[in-house]
Amino acid sequence: MFSTIVLPLDGLITDTTYLHYECFLDACRSFNITIPNELSFEEQKVFRSHQWLEEIDNLSHQQKEELILEKNRLYDDELDDINDDDIYPGILALITDAHKQNVLIYAVSDDDLANKLIEQLELPSYIKLITSNDLKKVTYDILVIDDLVTLNAMDNKLIISILLSQNDLSYSTDFTIQNTEELTLCFLKKIWEETNDLQYYSR
After folding, report:
1. pTM for the full predicted model
2. What's the Cα-to-Cα distance from 56 to each of 34, 60, 68, 88, 156, rounded to whole Å?
3. Mean per-residue pLDDT for 23-29?
């Protein structure tokens, strides 16, 4: 039986992608920066972090910091309207069932306001919030993601990886699901047993 599951807070437990994107749009206007305002959902995911700012050469470091502060101020206000209804379907049941089986749940996020988001969602206190850098230092069994950038950044190779995607494509993850309701404890137990059986017979 596995002992640890990693779930991204932004994009898997709940969807804040559009909020990050819209807050960056508004913040950029005050700095006379134009970013596309009709991006697809997949394209918007880049705005969940600040790394895209590194590619903007005409802003000083201080200006970038000020832009991030303004974006966070706007995002902070938007989070006031988030509640437990915004948790993706099936996720709370998974978290509850996993906890009953003494499975540790990591919620991973690099966002400055991740703690507030967890409070607004009223997530159980036994969920442990960590950053992607923290994730490189801990051991875990199952990693669920909604973007491949997260997977490529991980050093842990002895995990089962699951990608949430509605694109019918071949990915470098072990499994793909199309919605969070598929992500049940029974499903995770099944793929865990199947994967370990395959590893055993391949020795």
Report:
1. 0.87
2. 11, 9, 13, 33, 32
3. 92
